[in-house]
Amino acid sequence: MKWCVLVAVGEEKLHQPSQIAEFIGINRTAASRTLRQMEAEGLIVRTGGLGDKRSTNVTLTDKAQGILNQAIPRVAFIGKWFREKLSPVELEQLENILNKLLDGEERGFSQL
């Protein structure tokens, strides 16, 4: 879950907990719990929103950015490695199967 938050904030530039929760496919409570843990570990900073003090803005710390920067090339390499094992037709079939499995599962993921 933490990797997903790192990607959401660092790569997707999502800074509101609700945006992060939606990107990951979890509910707001699960996102808040994960953000609290990550804040305690020194991976994120949560601050009050600029115009609305009820909102929260999430940013990565230097520590988290370093972890993310190390992970991105590794993940890209692994993805390329596995994609090269499949033909273009097989890749399309796999994508179709994964999309079918994930269709409508936002509700299920929110329980994670």
Short description:
63% of the residues lie in helices and 9% in strands. It has 112 residues and is mainly alpha-helical. It has a single domain (2-109), classed as Arc Repressor Mutant, subunit A (Orthogonal Bundle).
What's the β-strand tally?
Answer: 2
Provide the residue-averaged pLDDT: 87
Give the domain tally: 1
Proportion of residues in β-strands: 5-15%
General description of the model:
The protein contains six helices and two strands, in the order αααββααα. With 112 residues, it is mostly helical. The protein has one domain (2-109): Orthogonal Bundle (Arc Repressor Mutant, subunit A). Helix 1 crosses helix 2 and helix 2 crosses helix 3. The radius of gyration is 16 Å and the shape is globular.
What are the main properties of this structure?
6 helices; DNA-binding; two-stranded antiparallel ribbon; about 110 residues; single chain; Arc Repressor Mutant, subunit A; HTH_MarR-typ; globular; transcription regulation; WH-like_DNA-bd_sf; about 65% helix; about 10% strand; transcription; mainly alpha
List the helices and strands and how they pair.
Layout: H1 2-10, H2 17-24, H3 28-40, E1 44-48, E2 56-60, H4 62-83, H5 88-102, H6 106-109
Antiparallel strand pairs: 1-2
Keywords: DNA-binding, Transcription, Transcription regulation
Pfam family, one: MarR_2
Domain HTH marR-type: 1-103
